[in-house]
């Protein structure tokens, strides 16, 4: 027996299941970390050869297992006899190379040691699962590479994923995939495998079919390669063979899951065949009147004739699943025949595309398309589902455009088309965004259908509402739907016409001699004298007339809804409620943005705007036919503040009297608690009414009520639910009063001696409340609210030397630490902000350290992964899919640690934190640190208009804050030089490179000012949070025309509203940018200031690096140039210097002008 045997290095593979986990955990919004990019390159040969790298058994490998050690490239294995026997058994069963079988067995047992002791059948089953898991993860890695490359779109610089995707197809991946697809579909059950394993083998084989087809679909969808006629005919032949039962799909579909997978294989192949017809390109060529010979079509006329010969052999009558392909082929042929430049190709004109349409319709092609969209596997599938829906969207849209399809009432095919369109768009935000972008050519025919339905509103309300409901997926599409309803929808009705109006006299203008009843809505009329246009003649004396009267479509819908609910019109009620529900649910983040400045109309319902709109519209309706409103309204002057303050005083006195009565006995009846609850609720409502005008005396009285009530109720043992409700109201009341006093007193305390005394009174009162609030924290229902009040008190009213002893004696810090691990996104930011407040003092930082905050923070981050990092999210709108309002937990955590390090300085605790957290942040969480420092891409001049998801991602102001938090931590930790250089020795170079790239982005930004070719802002940072929208409506407070103060406004606009829905195809590719100057706002100034804060921290960090290296050089006596930190290029620094000088000169000149005017006056 030889000691060591060397075998082919290609037999070794690193676990693909681990690799796909790393890839899926990486950020989609940036390039891969260097180690992952390296792994992709190392596995390139496996990706290209796909499953053929798993070799068949051979004698050489079998003999190699007789050695004591096995050398496979750089890897070395020690052969264990008991594993060798199992490997040979597995090799025979799986028909897998003996050495690879040994690697598989050893690796599987390493992960699951119990498997080694299992019985033979169980062991084979276990290894079979592991083997197919590796094969499928290999395919998933390839699929992930393509999906990532599609997601990032065109990039200005080299991108490792994009490069790898291109190289795969350059090296022949397409032909390998087609070959393996045919092999998989022809595979027979291995004779050596136990029959009991057939079901497992069948399902795993079908999963591999699905994955291979996913990869092929993505390859043609972007595209990474072009599907020629020969490949298309191969796919067509395979599809025909599958439908005819010539392949193994039917034999493998034994279990329910196998049947679903088998069905999905057919659907995938069908959609690949439709996608590779390039219907979208053909539509563009028809629109642009591009001659066929100059077009981008892949197929020649000869190719088309050969492909038609194949399609003509499909019998859609016998195989209804071929119906959509036959219909798509008819659309393809029709579009070809409409292109100019076909002279001499009469053969193409002779092909009967209408015959194909009849054949497809007779076979139920539309039913099959709807069935595809309704199948369960597409709902839970982890592959490119949105891509599959996009192909169906293109197909249906091209069909509508080719044959001028209109949705006719009571027509089954029209109903099917509408159902298909609704299923395509519902749940796919990217497709909805593209639909409402009027520059999207492919959605134009469907937009025409929407406009046709709108022209008959409210006669065809169900169809219109059903379609709009599917088109409002996401915040911006929902806003577009609302705007469409509110401003674009008119009123149509059936109107009796004179007999002399001919049937072809469409577009005839009529005038209503008397008010016309709006169809289906009792009490709503088109005013007399309104003109209308005849849309069509529907009877001898009846026409459909569109009136020049446009009340809000939302208003009309709601009136219709109110009456339908009494008329038992369940279908219309259902779809209307569904639309309203989706409009509200997709606009919850915009509730605060309602104003008259055009920011957003998305929150019309939640804000009460809907009720106001109804009242206004009712009041402005025709006086001749007013809408009856039950009840009456009385208007008068506002209640004076003095009267409200008197009421507050009286209620407080009554409340305190009741509390004093109950205090000795610590008991209360339910009726008594109900009275207390009503008093507190009324007190809260009245206080909100006058919160800006609260006097100090009233504030102190309300605070006394709150503290007395909280103290008593926290001690009551009976009726805890009722007591908890009152305590919650008292805490809310206390928070409201303190917030009001914080604003009022801090703004006046410096200017007025009396205000200073008032501040002292409130401060002393809060000191007495603090212990009571600490006790309230122990109750889960009041913990977060109590913590918010404490945080406000510590930050606004008390000095650390005053509050620190109280917290040490009364605050249950361990209880709060446990709350930190509950992963409740609404409570964690409150806790973190409180910790940040106390961490800014030495004593508070010591409290946090001794209470185990660092370990709790690690647990929190390990449980949540990257979900709490805003920057780690692929984009804001997809981040918001899972969490409605993303919370910057990661950034807050960094800030708390930074504050602790600053407060503790060089103390033993401070040193311990530095030693503990540096390796954690720059090793375990290095990818999040790097993501925070990613520089945005400058707008590309590549006008690739095919896919909506390749758009430049926007960032939020919270992203910029997170970057600031990251840099603050880096600067603070870098001051501890010796610990720093040890902790980041593996990432120091890429970390500095990231900082320099980000600095270069800031510096280069102003170089693009004035470039006429650049019409997009360098930084897209629209307002996303309530605070953003509030300051977005305020004017600029800096008023600078230089640097980022000039660059930020175009990118800081709220998401644009839909202007109008176009049903024309002539605007495709039209630039949406405008040359009108964008006004500067308080928000754009704030973004610019944040950019310069980040710039300052970047420079500070790089200076600390250079300073540390210089000190090191002094210590050792020479400069180590090889390891000297990279510094920004001079042009980067000059760019920043130019910006700073221009802004400062501008400020000085503005101040000089102001001083001159003052002197002159």
Automatic annotation (TrEMBL):
GO biological process, one term: protein import into nucleus
Domain of life: Eukaryota
InterPro entries (alphabetical): Nup188
PANTHER family named in the record: NUCLEOPORIN NUP188, NUCLEOPORIN NUP188 HOMOLOG
GO CC list: nuclear pore inner ring
GO molecular function: structural constituent of nuclear pore
Protein name: Uncharacterized protein
């Amino acid at each position: 027996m030889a000691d060591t045997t060397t075998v082919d290095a290609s037999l070794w593979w690193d676990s693909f299941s681990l690799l796909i986990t790393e890839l899926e955990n990486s950020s989609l919004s940036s390039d891969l970390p260097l180690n992952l990019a390296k792994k992709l390159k190392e596995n390139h040969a496996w990706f290209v050869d796909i499953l053929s790298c798993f070799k068949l058994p051979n004698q050489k490998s079998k003999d190699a297992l007789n050695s004591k050690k096995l050398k496979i490239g750089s890897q070395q294995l020690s052969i264990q006899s008991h594993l060798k026997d199992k490997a040979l058994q597995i090799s025979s069963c799986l028909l897998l190379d003996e050495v690879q079988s040994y690697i598989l067995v050893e690796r599987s047992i390493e992960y699951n040691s119990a498997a080694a002791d299992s019985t033979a059948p169980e062991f084979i089953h276990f290894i079979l699962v592991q083997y197919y898991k590796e094969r499928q993860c290999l395919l998933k890695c390839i699929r992930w590479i393509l999906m990532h490359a599609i997601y990032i779109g065109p990039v200005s610089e080299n991108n490792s994923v994009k490069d790898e995707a291109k190289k795969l197809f350059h090296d022949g991946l397409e032909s390998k995939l087609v070959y393996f697809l045919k092999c998989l579909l022809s595979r027979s059950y291995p004779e050596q495998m136990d029959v009991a394993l057939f079901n497992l083998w069948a399902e795993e084989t079908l999963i591999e079919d699905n994955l291979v087809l996913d990869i092929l679909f993505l390859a043609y969808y972007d595209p990474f390669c072009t599907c020629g006629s020969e490949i298309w005919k191969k796919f067509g032949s395979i599809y025909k063979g599958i439908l005819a039962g010539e392949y193994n799909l039917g034999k493998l579909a034994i279990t329910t899951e196998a049947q679903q997978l088998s069905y999905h294989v057919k659907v995938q192949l069908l959609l690949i065949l439709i996608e590779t017809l390039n219907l979208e390109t053909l539509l563009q060529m028809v629109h642009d009147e591009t001659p066929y010979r100059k077009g981008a079509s892949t197929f020649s006329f000869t190719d088309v004739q050969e492909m038609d010969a194949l399609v003509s052999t499909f019998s859609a009558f016998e195989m209804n699943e071929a119906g959509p392909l036959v219909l798509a082929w008819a659309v393809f042929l029709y579009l070809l025949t409409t292109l100019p430049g076909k002279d001499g190709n009469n053969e193409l004109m002779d092909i009967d595309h209408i015959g194909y349409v009849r054949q497809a319709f007779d076979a139920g092609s539309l039913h099959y398309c709807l069935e595809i969209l309704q199948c369960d596997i597409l709902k839970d599938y982890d592959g490119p589902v949105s891509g599959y829906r996009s192909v169906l969207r293109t197909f249906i849209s091209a069909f509508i455009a080719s044959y001028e399809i209109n949705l006719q009432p009571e027509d089954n095919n029209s109903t099917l088309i509408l159902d298909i369109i609704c299923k395509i768009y519902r749940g796919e935000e990217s497709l909805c965004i593209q639909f409402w972008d009027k520059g999207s050519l492919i959605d134009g025919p469907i937009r025409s259908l929407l406009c046709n339905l709108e022209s008959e509103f409210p006669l065809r309300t169900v169809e219109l509402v059903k379609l709009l409901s599917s088109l409002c997926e996401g915040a911006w599409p929902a806003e577009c739907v609302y705007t469409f309803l509110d401003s674009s929808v008119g009123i149509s009705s059936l109107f009796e016409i004179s007999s002399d109006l001919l049937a072809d006299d469409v577009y005839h203008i009529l005038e209503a001699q008397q008010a016309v009843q709006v169809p289906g809505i009792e009490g709503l009329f088109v005013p007399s004298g309104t003109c209308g246009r005849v849309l069509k003649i529907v009877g001898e004396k009846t026409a459909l007339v569109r009136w020049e009267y446009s009340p809000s479509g939302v208003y009309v819908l709601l009136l219709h809804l109110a009456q339908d609910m009494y008329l038992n019109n369940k279908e219309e009620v259902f779809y209307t409620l569904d639309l309203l529900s989706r409009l509200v649910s997709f606009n919850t983040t915009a509730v605060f943005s309602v104003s008259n400045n055009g920011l957003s109309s998305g929150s019309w319902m939640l804000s009460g705007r809907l009720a106001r709109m109804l009242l206004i519209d009712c009041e402005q309706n025709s006086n001749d036919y007013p809408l009856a409103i039950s009840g009456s309204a009385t208007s008068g002057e506002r209640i004076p503040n003095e009267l409200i303050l008197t009421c507050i005083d009286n209620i407080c006195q009554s409340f305190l009297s009741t509390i004093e009565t109950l205090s000795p006995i610590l008991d209360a009846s339910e009726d008594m608690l109900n009275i207390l609850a009503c008093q507190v609720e009324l007190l809260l409502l009245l206080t909100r009414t006058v919160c800006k005008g609260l006097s100090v005396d009233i504030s102190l009285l309300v605070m006394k009520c709150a503290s007395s009530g909280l103290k008593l109720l926290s001690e009551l043992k009976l009726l805890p639910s009722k007591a908890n409700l009152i305590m919650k109201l008292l805490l809310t009341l206390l928070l409201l009063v303190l917030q009001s006093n914080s604003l009022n007193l801090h703004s006046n305390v410096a200017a007025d001696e009396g205000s200073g005394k008032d501040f002292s009174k409130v401060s002393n009162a809060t000191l007495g409340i603090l212990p009571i609030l600490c006790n309230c924290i122990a109750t889960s229902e009041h913990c977060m609210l109590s913590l918010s009040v404490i945080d406000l008190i510590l930050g606004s009213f008390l000095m650390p030397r005053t509050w620190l002893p109280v917290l040490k004696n009364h605050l249950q810090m361990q209880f709060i630490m446990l709350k930190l691990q509950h992963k409740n996104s609404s409570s964690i930011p409150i806790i973190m902000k409180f910790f940040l407040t106390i961490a800014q003092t030495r004593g508070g930082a010591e409290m946090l350290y001794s209470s185990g905050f660092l370990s709790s923070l690690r647990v929190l981050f390990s449980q949540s992964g990257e979900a709490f990092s805003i920057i780690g999210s692929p984009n804001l709108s997809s981040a918001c899919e899972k969490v409605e309002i993303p919370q910057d937990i990661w950034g807050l955590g960094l800030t708390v640690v930074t504050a602790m390090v600053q407060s503790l300085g060089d103390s033993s605790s401070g040193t311990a934190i530095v030693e503990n957290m540096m390796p954690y942040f720059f090793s375990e969480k290095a990818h999040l640190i790097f993501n925070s420092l990613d520089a945005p891409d400058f707008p590309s001049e590549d006008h690739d208009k095919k896919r909506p998801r390749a758009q430049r991602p926007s960032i939020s102001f919270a992203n910029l804050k997170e970057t600031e938090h990251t840099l603050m931590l880096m600067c603070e930790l870098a001051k501890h030089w010796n610990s720093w250089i040890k902790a980041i020795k593996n990432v120091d170079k890429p970390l500095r490179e990231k900082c320099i790239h980000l600095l270069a982005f800031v510096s280069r930004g102003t170089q693009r000012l004035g470039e006429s070719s650049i019409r997009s802002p360098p930084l897209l940072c629209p307002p996303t949070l309530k605070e953003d929208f509030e300051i977005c409506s305020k004017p600029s407070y800096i008023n600078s025309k230089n640097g980022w103060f000039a660059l930020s406004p175009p990118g800081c606009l709220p998401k644009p509203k839909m202007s109008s829905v176009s049903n024309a195809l002539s605007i495709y590719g039209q630039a949406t940018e405008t040359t009108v100057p964008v006004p500067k706002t308080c928000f754009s100034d704030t973004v610019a200031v944040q950019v310069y804060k980040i710039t300052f921290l970047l420079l500070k960090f790089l200076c600390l690096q250079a300073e540390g290296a210089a000190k090191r050089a002094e210590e050792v006596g020479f400069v180590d140039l090889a390891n000297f930190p990279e510094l920004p290029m001079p042009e980067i620094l000059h760019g920043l210097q130019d910006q700073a000088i221009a802004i400062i000169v501008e400020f000085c000149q503005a101040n000089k002008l102001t001083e001159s005017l003052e002197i002159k006056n």
